[in-house]
Amino acid sequence: MSDEEKKKTVLVTGFGPFGEHTVNASWVAVQELGQKTIPGVIIEIQEIPVVYETVKKQVPQLWEDLNPELVIHVGVSKEANAITLEQQAHNEGYKRLDVLKTCPSNNCCVEGAEECLVSSINMEKVCSDVNGSGLKVKAVVSHDPGRYLCDFSYFVSLHIDRSKSAFVHVPPLGKPYTGLELADGLEQVILSMLSQI
Question: How is domain 3-196 classified at the CATH fold level?
């Protein structure tokens, strides 16, 4: 087995612009992360538009194409002031319009699936790893990803494989972190999560 084959593929997605987020901090941080070299890891990055229908098609396709060891979706939240590790996602209640002014049918993510899916990755452990790493960024754990595209994309991935799906909210750029500081935090998040899988 070659060294390349031994490496673990980690898919990290960020979102495109929406609303007041004309530059989406999630995609900036993910692009910075994509410049990093993490030993034993191949980082695949992908920008996803803030569109329910696209998420529904593109996310399962990425799982199929890449067969990743870990999938982390990253989104921006104006409420966040730290790297926010989401433990679970919801199936219903998607009434907020995406950038194409559409909602999913029945305001639902996956017809017939349970209402809430919880990642088997222990986010409290990831949180303490990030906070103990000596980095400038701090992390917190959340149980409500917000019933928008973030929550929606997370549910799609959890429905595929909850043992290796994660979602991370980042604050807007400069509030208080730079894209590079957020990427440093995401690198630590990846290392911690991979140690659990």
Answer: Aminopeptidase (3.40.630)
